[in-house]
Specification:
mainly beta, 20 strands, disordered N terminus, seven-stranded antiparallel beta sheet
Length: 264
């Protein structure tokens, strides 16, 4: 997938979103002066701001952020106090990405957001160190993070673009409960993880199994949601049911990204 960066901005800059096609408005392109209901301009009065912090909750300066809608992105870099801001945000679905430098040992965090008219959101992000990586070989179940088991092998992952190298290992980090990202549409967020290499796709799907580390009640149903960078949505990878204290179900990952276990 190709990502087009349309603007490079400093945090707090007074900028506007790139012009996006508003599919919710009248698409008639033959409008004349006699039209009584011409297409309306998109609402671009939203605002998304917050702070980036490290694993110890200290301000993270110089973190690069991407705020994307499809292939069009705005970017920002956090200030000394970790602050960032995207002003004049148009209505629509976006992917907010706290990027990690290559070979930094840190995890990329992505949060899908659906922005309404004039909505003001405060969204903080944390850069967490990845657990030790496991080298890929023949397809086998790997405990990527304590309690998180993914079946994957060499060749199962596709790079997100032509500039990215083939995946040679897999890693992840569990997101502490107090740092879980906002998940629009979920009743309860039980747990979350960031996976590496970020945004690598799994066309055949990757079977995943999760241990019941939270003593979830018998019979409860919980879904595993994966953040889709391109579509700016949480994709449902499958449903687990608590049976005799274990989470059981057929769940398959479409990609490596930020993912959350939720009660929908």
């Amino acid at each position: 997938m190709t990502r087009l960066v349309l603007a490079l901005v400093a945090c707090g800059g007074d900028i506007k979103d790139p012009v996006f096609t508003d599919t919710t408005t009248d698409t008639d392109t033959t409008a004349t002066e006699s039209d009584t209901n011409p297409p309306s301009a998109p609402d671009c009065t939203g605002n998304v701001s917050g702070f980036a912090r490290d694993a110890e909750s200290a301000p993270a300066e110089g973190v690069d952020l991407r705020f994307c809608r499809g292939s069009a992105c705005r970017t920002a870099t956090t200030l000394a106090d970790g602050a960032y801001e995207f002003a004049n945000v148009c209505v629509g679905a976006y992917s907010l990405e706290f990027t990690a430098e290559k070979d930094s040992g840190l995890a990329t965090l992505i949060i899908p957001l659906d922005i309404a008219d004039g909505e003001v959101l405060t969204v903080d992000g944390f850069q967490l160190p990845l657990d030790p990586a496991t080298t890929l070989g023949s397809a086998t179940e790997i405990e990527v993070v304590d309690g998180l088991h993914i079946t994957v092998g060499t060749g199962d992952l596709e790079p997100p673009d032509a500039l990215s190298v083939a995946a040679t290992d897999i890693a992840g980090v569990a997101i502490p409960t107090e740092l879980l990202p906002p998940v629009q549409g979920a009743t309860t967020v039980v747990a979350g993880w960031n996976l590496h290499p970020f945004d690598y796709e799994a066309p055949a799907g990757l079977p995943v199994r999760v241990d019941n580390l939270w003593s979830l009640p018998e019979g409860g149903a919980y879904e595993l949601w994966v953040a889709d960078y391109t579509l700016s949505v949480w994709t449902v990878a499958g449903t687990f049911t608590v049976d005799e204290g274990s989470l059981v179900g057929i769940v398959s990952l479409p990609m490596l990204s930020t993912m959350v276990l939720v009660q929908p």
